[in-house]
Amino acid sequence: MSWAQAADAVAATCFLVGALLALIAAIGILRLPDLLSRMHAATKPQVLGLWLVLIGLGFRLREPETVGILVLVGFFQLLTTPVANHMVGRASIRAGQVREELLVVNELDGVIPGPGEPRGAP
C-alpha cells in the first residue's frame, strides 16, 4: 500500500466518522427535551465532526496551503463556537426559555435577572 492509498483510507475514515458525529448532533437536537441540552448536543459532536472532516480533507488534498487554511478554519471554529453558545444560553435564561426543573445547579441564579415579561418563542 502506497502513502497516497493510506492517506485516502484515513481521509475516508475521517469523513465517515465526522458525518456520523454530525448525524448524532442532528438527532440530539431533535430528541433532547430542553434548550440547554440541545445546545450541548449541537456543540460537542458538531465541532469534533467538523474537525474530523477537516482532517480528512487535509489527508485527501495533501497541499500545504490548503492544510494551513483548514487548520485556521478549525481553530476559529474552536474559538467561536463556545462563545456563541454561551451567549445563546445567557439570552435564553434572560428570556425565560430555560426549564428550571431540569437544572441540577443554576450558577446564574441571581446573577442574571429573570424575564420581566415573556419574550421569544414558547
Automatic annotation (TrEMBL):
InterPro entries: PhaG_MnhG_YufB. The chain crosses the membrane at residues 6-30, 67-84. The keyword Magnesium does not apply. Keywords: Membrane, Transmembrane, Transmembrane helix. Belongs to the CPA3 antiporters (TC 2.A.63) subunit G family. This is Monovalent cation/H(+) antiporter subunit G. It comes from Nocardioides astragali. The gene is mnhG.
